[in-house]
């Protein structure tokens, strides 16, 4: 499998690495790590990393060289590269429906082999797949791929930082998910290769806007509804509140996890009004499968303990629906 990946990469002159809409820390981290690695070992190939729309401001520090290309900001140029790419590597998602307009550009390219590196469940078939739903992040799968091909020595500080970003953000700072011995061994290697976790933790957690911190305080104090008897809680956020706190893309990141910090709560829902729908995020602790709940009720899915979906209707209707789900827990 690793040999086939090497053959595909060395035969390709234009490699497109792509990740999903509303890119999170794992999308940006795994994509950047792979892009930096491919540029280092195949310097004669053109490797470029595209995401459909902008990543949140609190991740800006992760891309000092501007290696993440935002499709929406330069559609013609991105389309031209994607259409003519001779290898497409898909990281941290597996349904091209998550690409919005970028999927059209991809559909134009019928000849490039497609490689998947991902940890989301139920992937369709790709030409080559590095897939494990048991992996805590896509960055961990990228790490395994890099080390299998080129060894630990090829990991420099900037690759180590990108890998760490993906691993730490998908596990809530190594507090949930599949925290395996192999993951902790990997962290040791990343530190050996130049990573300073303190620097990255500070950049990740302590670079929020004042409005965002105030929004979190408001949501916790005024908007969190706790159903102790059902060990459940939820938070809602509507357009007027988003405007009041100058909501930016990425500001909703992590809000759904807040209710889980209440003793005795192991199901959390976050509902956010958007132009299209009410976006639903669900989290759980233990055996409660929110992927199934999202599939059944909210046109979505994800993982057992973290999933998302959409509700088409008003916020009031969404709340009624979520309360009904909670009542049935
Ligand atoms: Mn991920």
From TrEMBL:
GO MF annotation, one: nucleic acid binding
Which superkingdom, per the lineage?
A: Bacteria
Domain (DDH) spans 14-167
- Locate the DHHA1 domain: which residues? 250-312
**PANTHER family membership:** BIFUNCTIONAL OLIGORIBONUCLEASE AND PAP PHOSPHATASE NRNA
Question: What name does UniProt use for this protein?
Answer: 3'-to-5' oligoribonuclease A
């Amino acid at each position: 499998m690793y040999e086939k990946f090497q053959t595909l990469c060395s035969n390709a002159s234009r490699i497109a690495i792509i990740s999903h809409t509303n890119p999170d820390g794992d999308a940006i981290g795994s994509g950047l790590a792979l892009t930096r690695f491919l540029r280092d070992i195949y310097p004669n190939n053109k490797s470029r990393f595209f995401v459909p729309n902008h990543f949140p401001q609190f991740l800006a520090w992760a891309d000092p060289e501007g290696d993440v290309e935002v499709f929406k900001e330069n559609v013609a140029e991105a389309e031209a590269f994607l259409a003519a790419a001779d290898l497409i590597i898909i990281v941290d998602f597996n349904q091209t429906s998550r690409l919005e307009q970028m999927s059209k550009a991809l559909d134009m390219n019928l000849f490039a082999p497609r490689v998947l590196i991902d940890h989301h469940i139920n992937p369709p078939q790709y030409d080559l797949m590095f897939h494990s739903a048991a992996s805590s992040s896509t960055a961990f799968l990228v790490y395994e791929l890099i080390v299998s091909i080129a060894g630990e020595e090829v990991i420099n500080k900037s690759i180590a930082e990108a890998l760490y970003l993906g691993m730490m953000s998908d596990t809530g700072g190594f507090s949930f998910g599949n925290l395996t011995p192999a993951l902790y061994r990997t962290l040791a290697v990343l530190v050996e290769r130049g990573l300073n976790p303190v620097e990255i933790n500070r950049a990740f957690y302590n670079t929020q806007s004042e409005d965002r911190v105030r929004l979190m305080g408001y949501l916790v104090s005024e908007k969190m509804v706790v159903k102790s008897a059902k060990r459940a809680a939820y938070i809602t956020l509507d357009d007027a509140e988003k405007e009041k706190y100058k909501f930016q893309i990425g500001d909703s990141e992590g809000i759904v996890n807040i209710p889980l910090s209440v003793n005795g709560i192991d199901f959390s829902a976050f509902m956010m009004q958007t132009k299209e729908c009410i976006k639903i995020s669900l989290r759980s602790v233990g055996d409660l499968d929110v992927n199934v709940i999202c599939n059944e009720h909210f046109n979505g899915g994800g993982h057992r303990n973290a999933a998302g979906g959409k509700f088409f209707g008003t916020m009031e209707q969404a709340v009624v629906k979520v309360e009904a789900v909670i009542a049935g827990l």
